[in-house]
Design a protein that fits this description.
Shape of chain B: globular
Number of helices of chain A: 8
Radius of gyration of chain A: 16 Å
Oligomer: heterodimer
Distance between the termini of chain A: 30 Å
Helix content of chain B: 25-40%
Structural class of chain B: alpha/beta
Largest sheet of chain A: 6 strands, mixed
Structural class of chain A: alpha/beta
Mean pLDDT of chain B: 96
Largest interface: A-B, 66 and 63 residues
Shape of chain A: globular
CATH class of chain A: Alpha Beta
Low-confidence stretches of chain B: none
Number of helices of chain B: 18
Strand content of chain A: 15-25%
Radius of gyration of chain B: 28 Å
Number of domains of chain A: 1
Strand order of the largest sheet of chain A: 2-3-1-4-5-6
CATH architecture of the largest domain in chain B: 3-Layer(aba) Sandwich
Order of helices and strands of chain A: EHEEEHEHEHHHHH
Strand content of chain B: 15-25%
CATH topology of chain A: Pyruvate-ferredoxin Oxidoreductase, domain 3
Helix content of chain A: 40-55%
CATH architecture of chain A: 3-Layer(aba) Sandwich
CATH class of the largest domain in chain B: Alpha Beta
CATH superfamily of the largest domain in chain B: Thiamin diphosphate (ThDP)-binding fold, Pyr/PP domains
CATH topology of the largest domain in chain B: Rossmann fold
Strand order of the largest sheet of chain B: 6-8-7-9-10
Distance between the termini of chain B: 42 Å
Number of strands of chain B: 19
CATH superfamily of chain A: Pyruvate-ferredoxin oxidoreductase, PFOR, domain III
Chain lengths: 198, 563
């Protein structure tokens, strides 16, 4: 059996993680890859910690064991740091340069998080997806797509299974009209940025 | 009853509410396929308990079909209907969070038929539908016949599938547990060493394939999530068939929380008598100072519940309503149990806020405020509200009307003005109901903070004098307001904090806890994250120094998005 490729999407409820899961799901259909996408919704959507577990390749068990992620895509710094337990020494991490503290809490700053992840010898890519989204759309709403575009450029293992063109095609299944065009621009611009930092 | 196929869906605790009719429907049977879809929540991702609804099958004598994956669910729904129609009996279709909330590619086996049968004729079969004792006794016999026939006859794929019969070691697993088992043994390269039993009809467990799978085994492990429902039945089957083997289950597999590949892998290792190790080497958590703070769900920026809770607390002070007890209910507002609000002190069941408040008002002398959401009120709060006023309890009923059943995804309710199918209909105003019951009813718009504080304080004064008081706080769910603003092309206002006017008093931080307001590292003055601000204006109304002002005024008609 081919090994399943395990991706953790980490972030805060409302950042568009479920949408990102849907995009990758549709891209997998186009690519002819098996995929499971395990989500949590409901109360846990309301500004709480959220992870989506994506497994590409044949198999039915939807959850990723700790230490078994090949890739972590973090839309927020504290949540990326929190989900580090899913990483092993070979895991790639792509993190949005954005820290959103929970209300009334003490928290470490983003540089400390970056430093501590790097100390572990992990491959960490930091990209300001919020900024790119704001530049192109006027809001941070497409930061999720931006981070995916960036990741597609730097992670060969992922793009071996699902190509950037297939992700582009998958956007059509999730968005329509102007929003679709906007997300397309974001995807490709971020992909370019990723290519520069590979 | 009318010969039309039907399906009803609810979460695991929803079945508790429906338990009365569930028991009767096993007795009555059905005239067309009928399945009860219900998802349990092992691990309690968003529920008050992790009850195992397979028990409901045993108590109601209704078979339980339980898929191992979303793909399995697609196939087994069809099989569940066939089973239901074959025996004229309802079927419980049990799912769990991990099946219902997982996406998977599913290839349709056939086209979904275009012609739907949605109309039938009521079958005037009094013996079936009127469960007086004489009829009930007859129906009980029918039900038990069905039950035993299923146990006898339905031990076949896709309900029970036996792989590699005749091995020394067997593993029996139902539903999603089987998916974890399959991947774990595959990873160990030991798939062929075990007899594997995939169970998708755990209740009542057909005994023939179990006997078949275990008759040559020396040892067996039952892997199931939550309670030992399979284990008890397998033990009975072994006894009844004179088999004696070394059987393991809940002595190895955890009974609390949800199972995953990791846990199941370890359980299998223990069962095999090998060192309990896994192939994964997870990173330790990062050592950071301060540590990464927990991030429980919070009320969204602009959430009307934040305004209401703030208003109610200030008004209670103003009216000298000392230390009220806030009984709570189930919805996004349950989050009020946290700092800084503490306006939810119980949350036990749907509609419980009002009943608990009634009881507390009888046995304590503390002021009691029952907090209940709109949707919960419509379906479970009205009888309790009648009970308080009729039986002379004394508690304020505070109803939070945000137009939708917000927590579960903005489904409409009788205050929305849309039917469950999305058709326009009229609104049932909550205040009219409460007035009709005899409550002195106050309606506030919590976006107007000062005015609302005065009204609520007045309501509390009345309550202190002994009057029955209800408060309806009405403001649209912020997520819907944002959605409607996008739809209507409306720009909502955005606030900002003027640094020179801000004294760092934290009046907009500590009592409000809005996720759009943060205190940057190394600063003692808060800032508003413009992208997150929904423009509700609570912080601006709370700031004692007028330091919070509009950054962008929004469209002239922005308020339309909120109504």
């Amino acid at each position: 059996m081919k090994e399943r490729y395990n991706i953790i999407l980490a972030g805060v409820g409302g950042q568009g993680l479920l949408t990102l899961g849907r995009i990758l799901g549709n891209a997998a259909i186009i690519a002819g890859e098996e995929i499971t996408i395990a989500e949590t919704h409901g109360l846990s959507q309301r500004g709480g910690s959220l992870i989506v577990q994506i497994r590409i390749g044949p198999g039915e068990s939807p959850m990723i064991p700790r230490g078994a992620a090949h890739l972590i895509i973090g839309l927020e710094a504290l949540e990326t740091g929190r989900q580090i337990v899913y990483a092993n020494e070979n895991t790639k991490i792509v993190m949005n340069e954005f820290l959103w503290p929970p209300p009334l809490a003490l928290y470490p700053d983003i540089n400390q998080i970056i430093e501590k992840i790097r100390e572990r010898g992990l491959k960490l890519y930091v990209f300001n997806a919020n900024k790119l989204s704001e530049e192109l759309t006027g809001s941070i709403i497409s930061a999720n797509v931006a981070l995916l575009g960036y990741t597609m450029a730097i992670d060969d293992e992922l793009s071996k299974r699902i190509s950037i063109e297939q992700v582009d095609k998958a956007l059509e299944k999730v968005f329509r009209g102007k929003v679709l065009e906007m997300n397309r621009r974001v995807l490709w611009r971020a992909y370019e940025e990723g290519g520069k930092n590979k | 009853m009318s010969g039309v196929r039907s399906l009803v869906a609810m979460k695991h605790v929803g079945v508790n509410v429906a338990a009365d009719i569930l028991m009767s429907s096993g007795y009555a049977g059905t005239n067309a396929g009928f399945i009860v879809v219900s998802a349990d929540d092992p691990g309690q991702h968003s529920s008050q308990n992790e009850q195992d609804n397979r028990w409901y099958g045993l108590i109601s004598h209704i078979p339980v079909v339980y898929p191992s994956s979303p793909r399995d669910a697609y196939k087994l729904v069809k099989e569940a209907y066939k089973l239901s129609e074959k025996y004229g009996h309802p079927v419980i279709f049990r799912s769990t969070t991990r099946i219902s909330h997982t996406r998977q590619i599913i290839q349709l086996e056939e086209k979904i038929p275009f012609e739907k049968k949605c109309k039938g004729k009521f079958d005037r079969n009094i013996e079936k539908w009127v469960l007086v004792p004489a009829h009930g006794r007859k129906q009980k016999k029918r039900m038990m016949r069905v039950w035993k026939t299923i146990m006898e006859e339905e031990g076949r794929p896709p309900f029970i599938t036996v792989y590699n019969p005749g091995r020394r070691r067997a593993i029996i697993a139902d539903g999603i547990a089987f998916s974890h088992v399959a991947e774990a043994v595959e990873m160990m390269g030991k798939r062929d060493e075990f007899t594997l039993v995939k169970v998708n009809l755990p209740v009542p467990l057909p005994y023939k394939p179990i006997v078949e799978a275990l008759k040559d085994a020396k040892e067996a492990l039952i892997v199931e999530e939550l309670d030992p429902v399979l284990e008890l039945q397998v033990k009975k089957i072994l006894y009844d068939n004179g088999l004696s083997i070394d059987l393991h289950g809940k002595d190895i597999v955890p009974e609390n929380g949800e199972l995953d590949l990791d846990t199941v892998y370890k359980s299998l290792k223990e069962f095999m008598g090998e060192p309990v190790t896994t192939p994964w080497k997870p990173m330790k958590p990062l050592e950071l100072t301060p540590k990464i703070p927990p991030r429980p769900p919070v009320m969204c920026p602009g959430c009307p519940h934040r305004n209401t809770f703030f208003i109610v607390k200030v008004a209670a002070n103003k009216a000298r309503l000392k230390n009220p007890v806030f009984t709570g209910d189930i919805g996004c507002y349950t989050l009020g149990y946290q700092a800084p609000f503490y306006t939810q002190m119980t949350s036990l069941e749907m509609g419980g806020s009002i009943g608990v408040a009634h009881g507390l008002s009888k046995v304590t002398d503390e002021p009691v405020i029952a907090v209940i959401g709109d949707s919960t009120f419509y379906h479970a709060g009205i009888p309790g509200s009648i009970n308080i006023i009729y039986n002379k309890g004394h508690a304020v009923v505070l109803i939070l009307d945000n137009y939708y059943t917000a927590m579960t995804g903005h489904q409409p309710h009788p205050g929305t003005g849309k039917t469950a199918m999305g058709e326009e209909t009229y609104r049932v105003p909550i205040e009219k109901i409460m007035e009709a019951l005899g409550y002195k009813t106050y309606v506030i718009n919590p976006m107007n903070v000062k005015e609302s504080i005065n009204k609520v304080a007045e309501a509390f004064e009345e309550y202190k004098k002994g009057a029955p008081v209800a408060i309806v706080s009405r403001m649209k769910c912020a997520l819907e307001a944002l959605r409607d603003a996008r739809k209507l092309g409306i720009k909502l206002p955005v606030y900002t904090i003027l640094e020179d006017k801000c004294t760092g008093c934290m009046a907009c931080v500590n009592p409000i806890a809005c996720p759009a307001i943060m205190v940057p590292k190394g600063s003692n003055k808060p800032v508003i994250i413009a992208e997150l601000c929904a423009g509700c204006g609570l912080c601006a109304q709370v700031c004692p120094f007028n330091a919070i002002v509009l950054k962008e005024p929004g469209s002239p008609d922005w308020i339309k998005a909120w109504y």
